[in-house]
Specification:
The chain is mainly alpha-helical. It has 3 domains: about 1-125, Endonuclease III, domain 1, CATH 1.10.340.30; about 130-160 and about 185-225, no CATH class; about 230-290, Orthogonal Bundle (Arc Repressor Mutant, subunit A). Helix content is about 50%, strand content about 5%. It contains 14 helices and 3 strands. The protein has helices at about 1-15, 25-35, 40-55, 55-60, 65-70, 80-95, 105, 115-125, 135-145, 150-160, 165-180, 230-240, 255, 265-275; strands at about 250, 280, 285-290. Strands 1-3-2 form a 3-stranded antiparallel β-sheet. A hairpin with a 3-residue loop joins strand 2 and strand 3. It starts with a helix and ends in a 10-residue tail after the last strand.
């Protein structure tokens, strides 16, 4: 009954998102990497542009990292772009250009964790597995009425997937969390899952407000991020944003990061970016990327 009710609700409430219009494993993987810690609205134009430019792993692997990073500019967390570029080479070399469906093979790809691997399995290959992101983790904790460990959350999520309907079920769970079972001010009165939700007591029309939220610090529910303003992330982003147009004199790095009064911090961030392969330096100039082509897998 639970699955039928939620799937029926989802049929008329499903969000129309570009990555939901494809089952191409590479494009599904691209979308899931982009969606890591980034809001849906921001991702949509980047996903469409990336898919048009590099529609296959082979094409992405053949590109220069600088081009991939430049296309990613503004999306945040540039390590994800570098990891996706490296992942493309591994897929091209070790998997004949096809994104693997096996969980362990997916987890072996750079930047692919348990959530992303299972999302690719469910949304590209239709494998019956639960996909536990922040929204789903919150729902599961509320349904169970208690905090869940990561292992518990995954087990519960797996058990709920209707056989053969992994794509529709997991999308429904995400939409429920995004539109109804939200972190703040959830709309319990219009939730199709209210009857079996332990947080509301399984009573129609009951109010969850004022009750301790079992989703707090539960598995799959992210904690509040540190402020972006004034952070190292912001300074690094400013430097990366200054590089797509061409090389930057090394002496101007602190200025580009707005750290003229903190040269030591600026130098540390430059060294970090070099170590991560996001920029290169010849001593006098900084450039985007670590090389012209992706290193092939060994």
């Amino acid at each position: 009954m639970r699955q039928r009710a939620l799937l029926a609700w989802a049929a008329s409430h499903r969000r129309d998102l570009p990555w939901r219009r494809t089952r191409d494993p590479w494009l599904v993987l691209v979308s899931e990497v982009m969606l890591q810690q980034t809001q849906v609205d921001r991702v949509q134009p980047y996903f469409e542009a990336f898919g048009e430019r590099w529609p296959t792993p082979q094409q992405c692997a053949a590109a220069e990292l600088a081009d991939v990073l430049a296309a990613w500019q503004g999306l945040g967390y540039p390590r994800r772009a570098r990891n996706l570029w490296r992942t493309a080479a591994i897929i091209a070399d070790l998997h004949d250009g096809h994104v693997p469906a096996d969980l362990n093979d997916l987890l072996a790809l750079p930047g692919v964790g348990p959530y992303t691997a299972r999302a690719v399995q469910a949304f590209a290959f239709g494998i019956d597995t639960g996909v536990v992101d922040t929204n789903v983790g919150r729902i599961l904790a509320r349904w169970q009425g208690r905090r869940l460990s990561p292992r518990e959350a995954q087990r519960v999520a797996d058990d709920l997937v209707p056989a053969g309907e992994s794509w529709a079920w997991n999308q429904a769970m995400m939409d429920l969390g995004a539109q109804v079972c939200t972190k703040r001010d959830p709309s319990c009165d219009r939730c199709p899952a209210q009857l079996w939700c332990a947080w509301t007591g399984g009573v129609l029309g009951s109010e969850s407000s004022g009750r301790p939220d079992p989703a707090d610090r539960s598995a799959g529910v992210s904690s509040r991020q540190a402020p972006f303003e004034g952070s190292d992330r912001q300074a690094r982003g400013r430097l990366l944003a200054a590089l797509p147009g061409g090389p930057l004199p090394t002496e101007r790095a602190a200025e580009a990061m707005w750290l003229e009064r903190d040269e030591a911090r600026a130098q540390r961030l430059v060294e970090e970016l070099i170590d991560e392969g996001l920029i290169t330096s010849d001593g006098n100039q900084l450039r985007l990327g670590s090389g012209r082509t992706c290193p092939r897998s060994s």
